[in-house]
Amino acid sequence: MTADDLRETSAALAGRALELPELARAGTVAAYVSVGSEPGTLALLDTLRARGVRVLLPALLPDNDLDWGVYEGEGSLARVRHGGGRMELFEPSGERLGPDAVTAADAVLLPGLAVDTRGMRLGRGGGSYDRVLARLERAGARPSLVVLLYDTEVVEQVPEEAHDRPVHAVVTPSGVRRFGERTR
C-alpha cells in the first residue's frame, strides 16, 4: 500500500471503530499504537481521548507480557526497541500501571494478522495478547474484544490452539463483522 492508501484506510477504519456502541459507551479502552503496515490507530486513539475516554497502551515486558500506561497524546509516546533491536514499538512514556490495569477496560482493541469467520484471531506469535486474554478471564473481566484489520485479513479459518479465545468483533475499513451476539 502507498502512504496515501494507508492514510485513507486508517481514516476509514477509525470512522468505523468510532461508530461501535462498545467504544461510544466505554470509559476505558485498552488499545495499541500501530506499527509498520498495520492499520493506523493514532487517529482513533486521539478521538477516543478527545471524547474523554481513558486510553491504555501496552508496554512490552522482557517476558512478552504487557504492562500498561495512559495515552496522553502522540507526544507522550516513546519509541522502544525490543528483541535485540529487531522490533520497534511506540509505548506510553508515563507511569506504568501494571499488567492487571487492562482488567479495568470496557473494550480491548487487539492487533492481529487475521481473524476468521468464527472470530478466532491470529496474532504475531509472541503470546502477549494471549496473556492479556487469560488475565481478563481470570479476573472475571468481560470487556468487548475488537480486532482492527484490513478487509483482506478476514479469512475463512486461522490455526487455533486450546488457549485461543474468540473476539467479539473485527473492524475493517469497509465495515464491522460481529461474532456471537455481544454488543455491550
From TrEMBL:
Belongs to the 5-formyltetrahydrofolate cyclo-ligase family. The lineage of its organism: Bacteria, Bacillati, Actinomycetota, Actinomycetes, Kitasatosporales. One of its GO terms (molecular function) is metal ion binding. GO terms for biological process: folic acid-containing compound biosynthetic process; tetrahydrofolate interconversion. This is 5-formyltetrahydrofolate cyclo-ligase. SUPFAM superfamilies: NagB/RpiA/CoA transferase-like (SSF100950). Its EC number is 6.3.3.2. Its cofactor is Mg(2+). Substrate binds at V33, E38. InterPro entries: FTHF_cligase, FTHF_cligase-like_sf, NagB/RpiA_transferase-like. NCBIfam families: MTHFS_bact. It catalyses: (6S)-5-formyl-5,6,7,8-tetrahydrofolate + ATP = (6R)-5,10-methenyltetrahydrofolate + ADP + phosphate. ATP binds at R121, L122, G123, R124, G125, G126, G127, S128, Y129. It comes from the Bacteria. Keywords: ATP-binding, Ligase, Magnesium, Metal-binding, Nucleotide-binding.
